[in-house]
């Protein structure tokens, strides 16, 4: 492809409104342009990368026997009302009316439609398991679209859905997809971690998110430095410490802690460390008040707490709810004399060697507290937010934190959609049963951005070979020099004949501009035809390492083929 | 692919609401399902065909140097307001508001967005010509979605746009796209005609539509039986007849024609043939009244009349407008004594040997009319609707009528969009000029339906090899027979190893069901493993001709390869 008439408008200046690297680079290097907030046009260079990402995704999914189809973007509202998501999804769901006033959804995902299709198309367990997928444009009205392709309102997703007669069959497909995703992201040149994630609002069970590690990631993950354990912060656990019996140096005693509204303030007034104070938090778990105890220097993980308590909704109680129930301010609560409110304690509280706690009387704490004797709990659970340095729950290594971009997710939906949409099959005994379902997503355009986040330097993008728009960037440094021009055309023809994808900079620009643009655009191999053209020598630069080689034209194609292998 | 777990739910009964063959067959054979009126899911079989259509489209466009990109479906309303189409497109344009209340368009086409991108990305004539395209889902809120994929509300289009510094450059690209389209539709196995079409509301100049010939087509085309002349009925012309001097057997005379409201009624009362009467029609051409004269047995072609008169809008005058101006009913109008209203006559009126016409007095006609003497016209023009049997305008053959499905269109937009959206480049002299633009569309999903309309028989679809979902349909007639089962598995493995796409019917169904389904689904080659399995003999049937062959397994792969060439 000749760059002189290629539509890749580069920008000299840093785009003002782009605050992450991938967004900046894709704008500067002419890969994309914004059409509206969170809505982009993918220019020819980006389109080539997207094709390659899609091809890898298709290849690995087809290997598993998954079948590609395409479902529409317009869905009748009735389906979403039936599943309950018409209301659940709120403002993120783009709605519209057709000319007859009928309500439609511009779809962000396809559980409803695929469940309807399978319900109407598959009657018997004999056709199961079934795994279908599509690569398709999705719409989501983000409140604050940002970071370019990382959080847009129109984006490309691979979404897949599997249907099963048993939970075991679902578990097999889940594992198969998990493995396929690993292969896909590896081939795409990404550094990633599959992490345990929260099934939350989707209403399913097991789920893993695939996280590309990157500073700009919006999610924090905790991972072991010595095993493959990794989880989203909201789901991360650590090894529970060995319980100890606290040293109680005196009798239970109430001490004034005037105006102590935090654990730290109380600790200071009591002459103790924060970790010696029981942090008592009151939450509303599915409408019931519950007191949760944490070690003073720990934080509550609400997601884990909801899971551990087995409730759907969990929120912090308001100050008013606290005062009405305990007759004390939130800073003075504790498990002793707290009325009928059930108490749960985090495992880490069992490792406390000294214990003080609020007295349920504003401005007072108890010291010399003995668990079991002075207070009892319903159960010890895991609801603390893990901290860097905690022991990994598998006992191997300690936890570290990293930021990640969610590029994929595998999810056991169970019967959430087949039940609400009455999708049933007949089992071996002719009995109607709801399908077990899994769903599997990859953010195709988000992957594009994530690859750039992981593969760039100060000069521009550094494409991995597998997804580079072109393998080779051929520069004719001075198009007015006859020898250079002729050799460049010759090399261009040779590369094309060898089926090597090449972008040919045949523009009437200065050499410096061409070198700068080549680095910015980021092809793996740069071939510059310059002063040594009359000797049939070209200069080859590896974008990845920066290594440069003078190579004779005769050996060039072999060198390139070899390098690209 | 094993059919036992392939998602292609066939239907035994004719679907009730499908009234064209392609729609019926795609539903019955499990290629697609409706999700809402005019909105479909493409199941795995159809998806395979779509991939093949797209690959052919890409290959031929890439050959011309056109560059693929992807523009978004969501467009800010401002762009469409600027181009004027926000109002022009009326109810067909799907509109929506985002969470902040901003207006968006769900796009049916991309002239606005691409013009904006090129405006902002291309500054100089040096980067021209430029030809970009995308293959993308489009949305159009059809008043009456029907005929399955032929008139849907969500469909896949290839749309392309070219940008030029001169009209000549545009003409070159237009011809290049015209030729590429011919290659594409030929490779897709379609019988088609490029026809001269009306540029109408798109506001451009030259345009050709590519019509797949089919009875269900919504458009009528007129074509020569002896040349490649073809045009939409609304644009078709014929050779103007040689002018004659009418025989006038007496003097101009006014005759009563009471209650004659049509040419035929007047002719009967006057004892003349309809073709002897001047049909005088009054139209409103850009707000001015104009009288048009046709031979009595001809019909007005309003599109041609507007073009010939050089006006943008043309409509029939109302009866009231006629009465107010002429003081007579529409059935009694003529060019004699018609006041100040300008008169244009169709060429065919010059071939009339006897002429009568309305007297502009209700219930009266003139006979013995001499043109030039009794009335004059501003000019003779071509605005009659052609009739089958007319001479082709190129003088070769006569016109025939056929029905067609519009599968593609090439269009010279000129500067319609670059002017309204202020898209300019600098020419060689540094002068700012609006881009000349062309646009080029192919209805990908409509092509899918058109291929089926042209390739089916009473038993089902008969795919052309180039776009068949699978090349081979392999049937194991009795999966309980060990020899058959074993041979079928062997042949399946051999076909896969030879890279031949194969759908393998391994279902526990009767042979009759399998044969019926194979015909319905329509793969080019059917291989049945049956009674002669123990002799290593299989039965091969060519779907296209119905020819059957007993072939030894040893020779099978070579036979298939050879047949598919």
Automatic annotation (TrEMBL), chains A, B:
Alphabetically list the UniProt keywords: Aminoacyl-tRNA synthetase, ATP-binding, Cytoplasm, Ligase, Nucleotide-binding, Protein biosynthesis
One of the record's GO cellular component terms: cytosol
Top-rank lineage group of the source organism:
Bacteria
Q: Where is the Aminoacyl-transfer RNA synthetases class-II family profile domain?
A: 33-464
Localization recorded for this chain is: Cytoplasm
**Does the record carry Protein biosynthesis as a key word?**
yes
The keyword Cell membrane is assigned to this record: no
Specify the protein name: Proline--tRNA ligase
What is the species listed in this Swiss-Prot or TrEMBL entry? Shouchella lonarensis
- UniProt gene name: proS
């Amino acid at each position: 492809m000749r760059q002189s008439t290629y539509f890749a408008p580069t920008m000299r200046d840093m785009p003002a409104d782009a605050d992450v690297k991938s967004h900046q680079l894709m704008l500067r290097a002419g890969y994309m342009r914004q059409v509206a907030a969170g809505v982009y046009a993918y220019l020819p260079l980006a389109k080539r990368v997207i094709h390659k990402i899609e091809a890898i995704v298709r290849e690995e999914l087809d290997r598993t026997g998954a079948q590609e189809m395409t479902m529409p973007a317009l869905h009748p509202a009735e389906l979403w009302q039936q599943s309950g998501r018409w209301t659940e999804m709120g403002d993120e769901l783009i709605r519209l009316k057709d000319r007859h006033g009928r309500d439609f959804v511009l779809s962000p995902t396809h559980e409803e439609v695929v469940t309807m299709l399978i319900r109407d198309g598959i009657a018997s367990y004999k056709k199961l398991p079934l795994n279908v997928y599509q690569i398709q444009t999705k719409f989501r009205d983000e409140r604050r679209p940002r970071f370019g392709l990382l959080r847009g309102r129109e984006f490309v997703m691979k979404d897949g859905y599997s249907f099963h007669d048993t939970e075991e069959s679902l578990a097999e497909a889940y594992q198969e997809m998990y493995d396929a995703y690993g292969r896909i992201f590896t081939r795409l040149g990404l550094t990633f971690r599959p992490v345990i994630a929260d099934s939350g609002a989707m209403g399913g069970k097991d789920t893993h998110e695939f996280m590309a590690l990157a500073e700009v990631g919006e999610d924090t993950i905790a991972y072991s430095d010595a095993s493959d354990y990794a989880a989203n912060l909201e789901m991360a656990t650590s090894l529970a410490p060995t319980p100890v019996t606290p040293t109680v140096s005196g009798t239970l005693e109430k001490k004034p802690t005037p105006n102590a509204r935090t654990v730290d303030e109380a600790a200071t007034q009591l002459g103790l460390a924060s970790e010696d104070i029981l942090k008592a938090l009151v939450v509303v778990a599915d409408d019931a008040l519950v007191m949760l105890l944490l070690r003073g220097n720990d934080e509550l993980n609400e997601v884990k707490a909801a899971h551990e308590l087995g409730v759907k909704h969990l929120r912090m109680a308001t100050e008013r709810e606290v005062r009405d129930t305990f007759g004390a301010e939130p800073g003075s609560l504790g498990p002793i004399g707290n009325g009928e409110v059930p108490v749960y304690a985090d495992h880490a509280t069992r490792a406390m060697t000294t214990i003080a706690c609020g007295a349920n009387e504003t401005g007072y704490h108890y010291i010399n507290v003995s668990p079991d004797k002075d207070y009892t709990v319903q159960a010890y659970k895991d609801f603390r937010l893990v901290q860097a340095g905690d022991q990994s729950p598998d006992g191997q290594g300690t936890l570290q934190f990293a930021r990640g971009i969610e590029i994929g997710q595998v999810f056991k939906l169970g019967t959430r959609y087949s039940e609400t949409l009455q999708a049933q099959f007949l089992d071996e005994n002719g009995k109607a049963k709801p399908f077990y379902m899994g769903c599997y997503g990859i953010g195709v355009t988000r992957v594009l951005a994530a690859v750039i986040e992981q593969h760039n330097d100060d000069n521009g993008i550094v494409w991995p070979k597998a997804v580079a728009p072109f393998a080779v960037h051929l520069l004719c440094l001075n198009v007015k020099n006859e020898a250079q021009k002729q050799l460049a055309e010759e090399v261009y023809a040779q590369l094309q004949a060898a089926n090597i994808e090449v972008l040919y900079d045949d523009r009437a620009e200065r050499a410096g501009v061409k070198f700068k643009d080549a680095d910015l655009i980021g092809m793996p191999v740069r071939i510059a035809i310059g002063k040594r053209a009359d000797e049939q020598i070209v200069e080859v630069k590896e974008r990845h390492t920066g290594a440069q080689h003078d190579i004779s034209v005769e050996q060039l194609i072999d060198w390139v083929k070899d390098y690209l292998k």
